[in-house]
């Protein structure tokens, strides 16, 4: 039986560490999905557990390859079905851990994104909506994570231009977590002068226009500090 690659094993271990850093409880997160299945029939607890543990004993690689290849090419890119699914699952786990952290800090919020139902959506159903609503003013909050060291190395955060424009029009707030470095940043898109952007006509990954937020390392700081800043957005 195939083994999960070292790249995804490292990603999973980093997410496991950030769960602890956020003060979240993995067992409690799993409890949210007890008895639930994805539209494609896979048990959510089994999938989440296998991805975080980098455990292919239940054939998770084959299951996700079979179910997330055809019809998912636009979102999947060059990744296999398993890699695409694992990236989604790891992202959802971080969202759930952030949800617990905001609850711990008694910061008003709720999950609000198109994928808050935690299902593998085909590209036609994926929307550029923010992940959370947060604060007394119910500000849109978009969570972004880096599991590869790209932000620190390139000193920028790239996103699809269509998503950036949608979030900016909503005066949304970005909450960035560098999972490798365990740092975070809060970028208020309503405060135009507080961040610097660069238009990218054709992005090498997205294959479409993108926007880069530059000098990202100047924004990143202590994880807990960033969390507490969300109380006053």
Approximate shape = globular
Q: What is the end-to-end distance?
A: 48 Å
Q: How many independent structural domains?
A: 2
The Cα radius of gyration reads 17 Å
The low-confidence parts are none
Class derived from helix and strand content: alpha+beta
Average pLDDT reading: 92
Fraction of residues in helices? 25-40%
Following the backbone from N to C, one meets helices and strands in this order, namely HHHHHHEEEHEHEEEEEH
**What characterizes the major β-sheet?**
6 strands, mixed
**Could you tell me the number of beta strands?**
9
Count of DSSP helices? Answer: 9
Going across the biggest sheet, name each strand in turn. 1-2-3-5-6-9
């Amino acid at each position: 039986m195939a083994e999960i690659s070292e790249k995804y094993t490292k990603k999973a271990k980093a997410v496991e560490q950030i769960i602890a850093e956020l003060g979240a409880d993995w067992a409690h997160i799993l409890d949210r999905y007890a008895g639930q299945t994805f539209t494609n029939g896979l048990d959510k607890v089994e999938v989440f557990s296998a991805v975080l543990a980098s455990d292919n004993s239940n054939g998770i690689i084959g299951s996700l390859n079979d179910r997330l290849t055809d019809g998912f090419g636009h979102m999947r890119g060059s990744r296999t079905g398993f890699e695409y699914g694992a990236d989604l699952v790891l992202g959802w786990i971080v969202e759930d851990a952030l949800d617990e952290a905001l609850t711990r800090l008694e910061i008003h919020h709720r999950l609000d994104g198109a994928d808050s139902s935690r299902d593998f959506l085909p590209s036609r159903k994926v929307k550029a909506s923010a992940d959370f609503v947060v604060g007394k003013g119910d500000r849109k909050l978009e969570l972004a994570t880096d599991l590869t060291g790209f932000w620190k190395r390139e000193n920028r955060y790239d996103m699809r231009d269509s998503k950036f424009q949608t979030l900016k029009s909503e005066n949304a707030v970005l909450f960035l977590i560098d999972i490798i470095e365990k740092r975070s940043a809060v970028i208020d898109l309503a405060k135009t002068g507080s961040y610097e952007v660069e238009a990218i006509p054709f992005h090498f990954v997205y294959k479409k226009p993108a926007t880069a937020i530059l000098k990202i390392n100047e924004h990143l700081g202590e994880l807990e500090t960033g969390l507490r800043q969300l109380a006053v957005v």
